[in-house]
Structures are given as structure tokens and as C-alpha cells.
Design goal:
Among the domains are: 110 residues, Type II secretion system, protein E, N-terminal domain (GMP Synthetase, Chain A, domain 3), CATH 3.30.300.160; 152 residues, GAF domain (Beta-Lactamase, 2-Layer Sandwich). Helices cover 46% and strands 17% of the residues. The chain has 16 helices and 10 strands. The strands form 2 sheets. Strands 4, 5, 6, 7, 8, 9 and 10 form a 7-stranded antiparallel sheet that branches. Strands 1-2-3 form a 3-stranded mixed sheet. Strand 5 and strand 6 form a beta hairpin. 34% of the residues are buried. About 11% of the residues have low confidence.
């Protein structure tokens, strides 16, 4: 039986019910475990959560958690990366036939039994925060962490590499201008080869689009109503909209940053899109949409971070783009993006706004489910 950490924290008077509800909303929207969201929101320290779990189930907590960053290679080799990723655990120390195992959820008896069987050791679990486990998984097993874990404030200095000096702003601006010019020239060459001396470049044969399901609006409604998690919401919306537009995408908005969530180009999933980050302190169509909490329909202005967005979507400059915000709790938490011909986007504007409203309702359903399970 999983531990209801939210209920425990309220009972221990470390959280109010209102704070727990806000954290549950963030968990549903942005993913991760409840404890990680509480840490990121600045409501609790990682040690607070570990101690509560430790007291509840009688399992010691890892003190200090930084011990996860200094583990001998022969201990790490006891468990495969596949098992580590599956259960989110890290082998910490071996002593005779005992293996100390750092776990996010020490009540996961299935994980303990499987690891004991695979290693031949008696497993001794200890509680460790999710953020620390994720960072250790990356360090020892090269398991890529999601972007949400890069921004943990008190871990940033220890784990994120220092940014290199990118040179003066003028250099970045010139590189951005060069990209726009190159793309515009390539698109013009494809459309009007007679304007150029050289022969037009013949594009490589593209692979066939993914066999995405054909969805009606009723199908979309059913998928949103039955979504088991936030990624089901993004998949349903982008799959539906990809039937009408060449490029579609969804973004999550957090900590003044637009994070790539899911994108399709010509009905093909853009696998690297989740690595996209666009700061909302700088001008972009994402910034306009997030701050206004209203749709944006028009061309893409020539701003540096607009070029970052367009590169992530396939190195093209669309005629017109449509962005519609997902507004919850008085703030923009996500954005739906599509590009194509202006009239087509205008015709689909009302429908896309309805889809955004239904996405918010789907989030609210997940939040209610989470409150039932976590309190």
C-alpha cells in the first residue's frame, strides 16, 4: 500500500490543507511526485519529507542526502540501469550480504523483493528525496533527467554545469539573423527556383507519417475525460490537431519558462521537443500568449527566442501561427500551438479555444482524482 504523504504532512502540521491542494494541482499539471513539487514550491525541505516517511514506516532516512553523490563503482554495478529506472532506486552501500538501497518509496515491497532476488543481497531500504535519486540516476547510469529537475533551487549550484560565455549579444543577434535569412532563402528557392542561378535542391525522401488514429471531436472528448495523466491530455490534443495542421505543439508554463511538452510535424512526433526551454522574460509569441492569457493569431515576429521555437519545430518559418493559452487558477499553465495558412487557423480558432477549455477541465478531473488518492 502506497504512503499518503500529503495526509501525513498535514497531520504533522508541516502543511496546511490549502498548501497541499495547491501542490496537488502542480503535481497533476507538471508531473513528478508530490514531495518534489512541495520542495520546488518552497513549502518544505527535502529532509522534512524524508523524516515524515521515515517515522511513519519505520525506515531510516538518508542523512545527509548528498551521500548519493559519492558511491563506489562496485556498489553501483550491483543493479542494472533498467531496474534503477523502473523503481527509481540507487544502491548505496554493501556490507557482507546486506545492500543498503536508497528509495523514494520504501513501502514498495515489489521493488525490494525483485532487487533482493536479482542481487542475492538482503535489501535494507532508506528514504531519499526524489530529486536526489534522479540526479544520482543521471550521474551513475546516464539516465537522462527531465527538465523539471534541473531547476530545483537549492541543487542548482551543485548539479548544473556553469554556462559558457556566449560572447557579446551582437554575435547572438547576428547568428539569429543568419538563421532567418538562410531559412527564408531556402523556402524561396523551393517555391521560386527560377529566381536563382543554381538548380533547386531536391529534398530527401521523408519517411511515412506515423499511423496516428483518426479522431473526431467526440473521440477527443472521450479521451480527455478518461485521461489517466497529463501526457494523455497532450497526446489526445496534438493527435487531433495534427489532422488539420502541419505543425502542432503543446507547452507547459512554469517558473517564467515555456517548456516543450509534445509536438508533431507532418504527423511525426518530434522526440527532442521536450528539451525546449523558452524564457518568458524575453520577447516571443509564447510570452505574448502567456501574459495576455488570450490567443495569438498572426505572423511570427523576428525575435531571437521565436527562432528557437521555430527551429525546434523543424526549421521553417510559417505564414501564420495560432497560440491558445490554458488558464487555470488565474494563470497560464500551458499553451496550444499550431501553424499553417491564416484562413485555416482563423476557421479553427473557436474550436481550438474550446479544446483548451476542455484540456483545463481534464486537468481538474485529474486533480480531484489525485486529492482522493493522496489525502
Amino acid at each position: 500500500m502506497s504512503i499518503k504523504i500529503g495526509e501525513l504532512l498535514v497531520r504533522e502540521k508541516l502543511l496546511s490543507k490549502e498548501q497541499l491542494e495547491e501542490a496537488l494541482k502542480c503535481q497533476v499539471i507538471f508531473g513528478g511526485r508530490l514531495g518534489t513539487n512541495l520542495i520546488e514550491m518552497g513549502l518544505l525541505e527535502e529532509e522534512d519529507i524524508a523524516r515524515v516517511l521515515s517515522n511513519k514506516i519505520g525506515v531510516p532516512f538518508l542523512d545527509p542526502p548528498s551521500r548519493l553523490m559519492d558511491i563506489p563503482a562496485d556498489v553501483i554495478s550491483l543493479i542494472s540501469g533498467e531496474v534503477v529506472e523502473k523503481y527509481q532506486v540507487i544502491p548505496l552501500r554493501k556490507d557482507s550480504r546486506r545492500l543498503t538501497l536508497a528509495m523514494i518509496d520504501p513501502s514498495d515491497l515489489k521493488a525490494i523483493d525483485e532487487i533482493a532476488f536479482r542481487t542475492g543481497y538482503v535489501v535494507r531500504p532508506v528514504v531519499a528525496p526524489e530529486v536526489r535519486i534522479v540526479l544520482a540516476m543521471e550521474k551513475y547510469y546516464r539516465i537522462e533527467r527531465k527538465l523539471r529537475y534541473i531547476h530545483a533551487p537549492h541543487l542548482q549550484a551543485q548539479t548544473a554545469p556553469a554556462a559558457e560565455d556566449s560572447g557579446p549579444d551582437t554575435a547572438a543577434g547576428e547568428a539569429d539573423d543568419a538563421w532567418y535569412s538562410a531559412i527564408e532563402n531556402e523556402q524561396t528557392t523551393c517555391l521560386h527556383p527560377s529566381l536563382h542561378d543554381e538548380e533547386p535542391r531536391v529534398p530527401e525522401q521523408a519517411p511515412e507519417p506515423e499511423a496516428l488514429p483518426t479522431l473526431s471531436m467526440d473521440d477527443l472528448d472521450e479521451q480527455l475525460a478518461s485521461a489517466a495523466g497529463r501526457d494523455d491530455i497532450a497526446a489526445a490534443i496534438t493527435n487531433y490537431m495534427a489532422q488539420h495542421f502541419d505543425n502542432v505543439a503543446m507547452f507547459l508554463i512554469r517558473d517564467h519558462t515555456a517548456l516543450g511538452w509534445r509536438a508533431l510535424k507532418d504527423r511525426r512526433l518530434i522526440a527532442s521537443f521536450e528539451q525546449l526551454q523558452v524564457p518568458l522574460e524575453e520577447p516571443s509569441v509564447l510570452k505574448i500568449t502567456a501574459e495576455s492569457q488570450s490567443y495569438y493569431l498572426g505572423p511570427v515576429p523576428r525575435f531571437p527566442f521565436n527562432s528557437v521555437l521555430l527551429r525546434a519545430l523543424g526549421d521553417t518559418i510559417p505564414e501564420t501561427v495560432l497560440l491558445v493559452p490554458l488558464v487555470m487558477m488565474g494563470r497560464t499553465v500551458g499553451i496550444i500551438y499550431a501553424d499553417g495558412e491564416q484562413q485555416t487557423l482563423l476557421d479553427k480558432l473557436s474550436e481550438t479555444q474550446k479544446i483548451a477549455s476542455k484540456a483545463v477541465m481534464a486537468f481538474e478531473i485529474l486533480i480531484f482524482k489525485s486529492k482522493i488518492l493522496m489525502t
